[in-house]
Specification:
Elements lengths: L1 H27 L4 H21 L2 H18 L7 H23 L8 H7 L5 H5 L21 H28 L5 H22 E3 L1 H4 L2 H12 L3 E6 L4 E3 H22 L3 H6 L6 E10 L2 E8 L6 H11 L4 H5 L3 H5 L23 H10 L3 E7 L3 E9 L4 E9 L2 E6 L3 E6 L5 E6 L2 E6 L2 E7 H4 L9 E7 L2 E7 L1 E9 L5 H4 L4 E5 L7 E4 L1 H7 L24 E7 L4 E5 L3 E6 L5 E4 L2 E6 L2 E5 L13 E5 L6 E13 L5 E2 L6 E7 L2 E6 L1 H5 L10 E4 L4 H14 L3 E3 L10 E5 L11 E5 L12 H11 L1
Parallel strand pairs: 2-4, 9-18, 13-15, 20-29, 24-26, 30-31, 30-32, 32-33
Antiparallel strand pairs: 1-3, 4-5, 5-7, 6-7, 8-9, 8-16, 10-14, 11-12, 12-13, 14-15, 17-18, 19-20, 19-26, 21-25, 22-23, 23-24, 25-26, 27-28, 28-29
Helix pairs in contact: 1-2, 1-4, 2-3, 3-4, 4-5, 7-8, 10-11, 11-16, 21-22
Length: 759
């Protein structure tokens, strides 16, 4: 918001300076309609910005001036000298308030009512009697802006990059020679270079709005040419990205938007037949994740017919028959990037030539990015472009694994711990491993194993944040931290999916920058993504797409439970299991812990383990015979016929597996605390669950997206433009989409306060 406010101040200053002559000319000739229109546009623009930035005083003044000027434009008021002077006073006052905001100074609001009243009075005496306020700008050195050529900015950034490399080389040579007499000077140089780097980098940053601004016109014209109805939603326009990256993404983005309109979205008649609304939905959004920017293009159309892609690929390359037919679903979808492959039978002005998506991927990979597809046949398609924040300089941590050195972006690192520390425990889970760090469970990825390097016992664990979750990366050691100049690596290297670029550290040895999200993907880790559509009513209360533990239950059946519900795994001896008061218990020291399970235990067996559940679920444990593996729950889960511990059935490795509902387990233990229910409703319930659930739970609520039979929600959360029929009788809290709304969707503090008052 600070950046937006500064932009408003700068633009208002420029407009005031530009319009000053127009105001003076209008005073001399009030009948000049062109100048009247210019002044009207100015106060209208200021009024619109005030609503977004929460500047009520400026908004009130500009609104009053707008009303009077509108009356003049309509012929209802005569633009006499008194009215012109009153408008001039309002404009001057807006300038004074803007300067006060910029200076952080207070400005008395007395006299502003008189300014507004003077607009309705048509005599010079009223204007002459207006209070005069001292101008804040009198002693201010105004902030000025200039326009620089892109070539000059590029030369500045290249110069800073060379300075960073020279500083790194100097530091390396000083270490080699043992020279320490100029260490202080080197530190000063490093600080100066860092400050200069930050300044120049900032000059290159632009909001993604510069990339999205052309899309409404593209969508309008393309949809009209195709005879389709489209509702476009743009989100994340305030995200900042390197100017060069914006220019490189412009053509790929336009191409994918046109593809979504042509290939993805159906005609109104086709959508009616499919039970959809006639107007298709297209969403283009941007968000920052660490040192990378994610741009997503999502539609609610037909998705990709992978069988059709396979057929087209076989028709073009019959010699690859066995290779193509043996592709996984992800591999089949990747056929869309094959040069010359098109799903269209007829070439049109929009598509059908088989040229485009291969070029899109090539261009994205050349700048150190990657492209991912999430296909939902019949329900839509989502394409995500993940690109570096900048092609400039990055703060990085240098690590070693398998005898080689790599760089990791410092922004993505949550913490670094020793693998042998007391707070760390590593457990084998099937073919993988699970790291527990201070009761926080994370999937463990060994860097040497992912890269095919010689294996060694992990020395350090680095907790890395990725979109949707986190994981622990095992490395041999950490060598150093440096400011590195990052450039794209060769396309063949980038296609490996684990690298984000290349660099030259002060050691003088070329080095690759690791992509933390790419490492997770190559290691088989999947994290839940933001959902846009409300799930079917029959969906089970276990979120699909999340990681879960697959295990053999005490009755021999394979079952699965969400990994987030498990605190840790510990051995369970037979003599620690007891039955009392109609409930099975395990003893741990002086504590009795309730046992919950889908099967009924008769007696404990040697070799059992206990899944200690998350403390928020209570002091509970789930006995199992054997942990098998960490898996990802499929998108579709068949709900169970009856309520209980089994939420539904999921297909895992081609076989049905029962899915455990962790919340249902708590109901089996006497004394379990039942928190009040908060029901998420509407098409954006998935978004609420991802972003707002932690804050809601912290306020003492249990969060659900479907009520079980007999349940009543104390609070119902929905967007302000959505119906909530059939949601129960709880208090309804509505989230607004604009910052000025009473309960803005991103204002977690206000939401917690509202939940507290609803309790």
């Amino acid at each position: 918001m600070d950046d937006l406010l500064q932009e408003f101040i700068a633009e208002t200053r420029e407009s005031l300076e530009a319009i000053a002559g127009e105001i003076v000319a209008w005073e001399a000739d009030p009948a000049d309609r062109a100048r009247l229109d210019a002044i009207f546009r100015f106060v209208h623009t200021v009024k619109g910005s005030c609503g977004f930035l929460d500047l009520p005083r400026v908004g009130r003044l500009s609104h009053a001036a707008e009303d009077v000027l509108a009356a003049v434009r309509a012929g209802d008021r005569v633009p006499d000298r008194a009215l012109v002077n009153a408008v001039l006073s309002i404009v001057d006052r807006i300038g004074e308030i803007v300067e006060a905001i910029d200076a952080g100074a207070g400005l008395d609001d007395s006299g502003e009512d008189a300014l507004i009243a003077a607009l309705e009075r048509q005599d010079d005496a009223a204007v002459a009697a207006l209070p005069v306020q001292p101008t804040v700008a009198a002693g201010r050195a105004q902030s000025r802006s200039i326009r620089l050529s892109v070539d000059l900015l590029d030369r500045m950034m290249n110069g800073v990059s060379e300075m960073v490399l020279a500083r790194n080389e100097l530091a390396r040579r000083l270490r080699e020679t043992g020279e320490d007499t100029i260490g202080h000077t080197l530190d000063r140089l490093s600080q100066t270079v860092a400050e200069l780097r930050d300044t120049v980098t900032r000059t290159r940053m632009q909001t993604v709005d510069a990339l999205f601004s052309a899309l409404p016109r593209v969508v309008r014209d393309t949809a009209a040419a195709l005879g389709k109805q489209v509702s476009l939603t743009i989100d994340g326009g305030d995200v900042e990205l390197d100017r060069e990256m914006i220019e490189l993404l412009r053509d790929p983005l336009v191409h994918m938007v046109r593809n979504a309109l042509d290939h993805g979205l159906e005609t109104p008649a086709e959508r009616r037949a499919a039970g959809k609304r006639e107007a298709g939905r297209l969403t283009v959004s941007a968000r920052q994740s660490g040192n990378r920017i994610l741009v997503e293009i999502a539609d609610d159309g037909r998705g990709i017919d992978s069988d059709l892609l396979v057929a087209r690929a076989l028709a073009r390359n019959p010699a690859r028959d066995s290779e193509i037919r043996g592709l996984s679903e992800r591999g089949r979808l990747d056929l869309i990037f094959e040069p010359g492959l098109s799903s269209r039978d007829v070439v049109t002005d929009t598509s059908g030539r088989g040229v485009g998506m291969d070029v899109v991927r090539t261009n994205v990979e050349q700048i150190g990015g990657r492209i991912a597809i999430a296909n939902h046949p019949g329900r839509g398609l989502s394409i995500t472009l993940e690109v570096p924040l900048t092609l400039a300089i990055l703060s990085a941590v240098i690590v070693e694994a398998g005898g080689l050195v790599f760089a990791l972006p410092r922004q993505a690192i949550d913490e670094i711990v020793s693998a042998r520390a007391d707070m760390v425990r590593i457990d084998p889970i099937g073919e993988g491993r699970l790291a527990t760090i201070r009761d926080r469970q994370l999937p463990l990825v060994a860097l040497d194993a992912v890269l095919g390097l010689p294996r060694a016992a992990p020395g350090l664990l680095m907790v890395l944040d990725v979109p949707g979750g986190a994981y622990a990366l095992a490395v041999d050691t950490v060598l150093d931290t440096e400011e590195l100049v990052i450039k794209p690596a060769a396309p063949a290297v980038m296609r490996a999916g684990v690298y984000a670029g290349q660099t030259l550290p002060d050691s003088g040895r070329p080095m690759l920058l690791l992509d933390v999200a790419g490492l997770a993907a190559v290691a088989g880790l999947q994290f839940s993504a933001m959902e846009r559509e409300e799930p079917p009513v029959a969906e089970v209360p276990v979120e699909a797409g999340v990681q879960a533990l697959l295990f053999h239950d005490i009755d021999g059946c394979r079952r699965v439970i969400a990994l987030a519900a498990i605190n840790r795994i510990e051995p369970l001896s037979p003599d620690a299991v007891h039955e009392a008061a109609g409930q099975w218990w395990m003893t741990s020291g002086e504590q009795a812990i309730g046992l919950v399970c889908a099967a009924t235990p008769r007696a404990a067996e040697t070799g059992w383990s206990a899944l200690r559940l998350d403390e928020e679920l209570g002091a509970l444990a789930y006995p199992v015979r054997e942990a098998i593996d960490i898996v990802t729950l499929p998108t579709e889960i068949t709900p169970a016929a009856l309520p209980g511990a089994i939420a539904g059935i999921a297909m895992i490795d081609g076989a049905p597996v029962e899915v455990i509902d962790p919340l249902a387990l708590t109901e089996r233990v006497a004394g379990t605390r039942h928190a009040p229910l908060c029901l998420l409703r509407g098409a954006e319930a998935g978004w609420m669950e991802i972003f707002l659930k932690p804050a809601i739970e912290a306020a003492g609520y249990r969060v659900v997206r479907r009520l079980a039979e007999g349940e009543v929600a104390e609070v119902i959360l929905a967007m302000d433009d959505e119906e909530v029929g059939g949601a129960g009788e709880g208090r309804i809290l509505r989230l607004g989409r604009s910052p000025g709304d009473p309960l803005y969707r991103y204002d977690r503090v206000a939401l917690v306060d509202a939940l507290g008052s609803a309790a």
